[in-house]
Structures are given as C-alpha cells and as structure tokens.
Design a protein that fits this description.
The chain is mainly α. The chain is 65% helix and 4% strand. The protein has helices at 25-50, 79-106, 113-135, 140-164, 177-203, 220-247, 252-277, 282-305, 320-325; strands at 2-5, 171-173, 307-309, 315-318. The chain has a two-stranded antiparallel sheet with strand order 1-4. The protein has a two-stranded antiparallel ribbon with strand order 2-3. It is flat and about 65 Å long. 37% of the residues are buried.
C-alpha cells in the first residue's frame, strides 16, 4: 500500500522552480482561435475543391494576370470568388499565428516557440504549395499534399493550445505504458484514415476543377471500402482505449478525452456512410472534411492528456505501517 502526496504549487510557485506558469486566459483563447482558424481554412479549401473552383483564379500569386483580385471580365463566374475568398483567409490565419507568437513570447514560454514556428512556417509553405498546385492545374498529388499539410498544421496548433494550458517543464506519463502505446497506435491509424480519405476524394467526382477534374484514376468504390475498413479498425481500437482508461483508473481528463473522441468518430461514420449512399453531395463532403479536422484535434488532445507536468504528478510514498503488518 502507498500514500499519495501531492506537490504544493502555492508554497512553491512555478516561477520559483525555474518553470513558467500556464498562459493567461486571453492568451489561451488566441491559441484556441488559431486551432479554429486552421480547421476553418481546411473546410473553405474543401469548398473550393468540392464546387470545382480550384482554378477560379487561374494564376498565382495573382488571381488573373495583372490583378491580385478577381475582375469582371473573368470567365470563371462565381468560382473566382470562392477561390479568392480562400486565398484571402490565408492572410487572416497568418495574422492569428503571429498573435500566437506574441502571446507566447510575452509570457516567456520558450517551450512553445517550436510549435509556433511550425505553424508560421507551415502557413508560408502552404501558400507556396497552393501556388504550385494552381500552376500544375490541380494535379491530384499536389492537391492531396496541400490538404495533408493543413492537417499537420491542425496537429501542431492543437499541441500548442493544450501545452499552453499547463506549466512548462518535464512531463510524466500518467497512464499505463500499454494504454499510451494503444493511443499512439490509434493516432497513426487515424492519420492513415485521413490519407486514404483524401485519395477517395481525389478519385471521385469532387477533384477540383469544374470543367476537367483531375483524378487519381483509381476505382472510387475500392478505395472507399479500404477507407471504411480503416475506420472500423480505428473505432474498435478507440473502444478498447475507453475501456482500458476506465479499468486502469486513468486521470479524468484522459478518460473524458477518449469518450469525446469516440463519440465524434461515430458521428463522422454516420456522415461518411450517408454521403456514400447519397452520391456524395458536396455539402456532406464538406462536413465530413470539417469533422476530420475535429477528429485530429480530439486525438491530439487525448495524447496530450496522457502526460502531465512532472511537478504536478502526485508522488507515491510507501506506507511503512502496511509494510510492517505484511
């Protein structure tokens, strides 16, 4: 038997121990807004693709030769406004990322700077990848890369947000090693689901351009089945994780995160099967893409909940009286 002894953060604040406290509420909200913005631009980018507006602005960085904004004389109709709107949103996402940098720097959370750097660098890289995609006339491989880099940005932004809610410093694992391994396996499986889902979209009717959609040339039904098989394996693993976290008395944050992820995954499955049996209406496909972002956020949140700042983890002290009677 052992006695749990908590470490007091009142008598020995983080700053005195050479650590940095969690970010204040206003800064945390900026980091959360960054997550929302990264997800939103994925959805708007999906709308560009799903409405066939990928070449609404046929050049880059200009929309048409000689103008950075759409002009009346363009032949692309409403497609030019959809594509231009998505390009404009990139600027807003960049401003929010810079606000994250200011918030992190002001509170001297240097442990968060690598994640901010990844977000800012990723946004710049996305602008270049988007331009290359336009010049390559929406070749499916480039479109797929554009989307997957966005999902990596969602991942980095979520880690940044969750870490900002806690103190800096070394971290300790708060669940059993086997459970943590299962959670990482689930994360790998989820990213496989996302990759194959992108191939499904690139093989179907919503591939980017309204007139001549570029596709992978794969059988959409076969790829969809593979996607569904991976999803079912992922759901089975999540159910096992929920049970394991409860059976091993994991922290409430980890248990809550696993249940929320499982519920969102089941809802995503309902949307996925509905769009499949209704001939892929673009509105449902857009919702499916937005839900994919949510799943990545919740999966990363679960992984973050499996560890905690080492200074806040209770210490297990052996009970000498129990040892003597034994």
């Amino acid at each position: 038997m052992s006695v749990t002894v908590g470490r007091s953060s009142t008598t020995n604040p983080p700053e005195r121990r050479g650590l940095r406290a969690a970010l204040p509420r206003w800064a945390s909200r900026i980091l959360l807004l960054n997550v929302v913005a990264e997800c939103l631009i994925v959805v708007t980018g999906g709308v560009v693709r799903l409405t066939g507006s990928g070449l609404g602005c046929p050049t880059w960085p200009q929309c048409v030769p000689g103008s950075y904004v759409p002009v009346v004389q363009q032949e692309q109709g409403f497609h030019k406004w959809i594509e231009f709107g998505n390009r404009t949103l990139t600027g807003l996402v960049g401003i929010i990322a810079l606000a994250c940098l200011v918030a992190v720097w002001r509170h001297r959370r240097r442990d968060l700077l690598p994640y901010v750097g990844l977000v800012i660098f990723g946004i710049l890289a996305q602008a270049v990848i988007g331009g290359i995609t336009v010049h390559m006339e929406l070749a499916p491989g480039y479109v797929m890369t554009h989307f997957l880099v966005s999902m990596l940005l969602v991942t980095a932004s979520t880690i940044l947000w969750r870490r900002g809610l806690e103190t800096s410093g070394p971290r300790a694992v708060v669940v059993r090693r086997e459970v943590r391994g299962g959670a990482w396996l689930a994360a790998a499986l989820l990213y496989a689901v996302v990759v194959v889902g992108t191939v499904v979209t690139g093989s179907g009717p919503h591939s980017g351009d309204a007139d001549e959609p570029a596709r992978f040339g794969l059988d959409p039904q076969a790829v969809s089945w593979l996607h569904a098989d991976l999803v079912m394996a992922y759901v089975g693993l999540l159910i096992g994780l929920v049970v394991a976290l409860r059976a091993t008395s994991a922290p409430p944050a980890a248990r809550h995160a696993s249940v929320l992820l499982l519920v969102a995954t089941l809802l995503q499955g309902v949307v996925g099967y509905t769009q499949y049996f209704t001939d892929l209406p673009w509105v449902l496909v857009a919702i499916h893409m937005g839900m994919a972002c949510l799943l990545v956020v919740l999966q990363v949140r679960l992984l973050c909940a499996l560890t905690a700042p080492r200074d806040e983890v209770p210490v297990q002290v052996p009970d000498r009286r129990a040892a003597a009677t034994a």
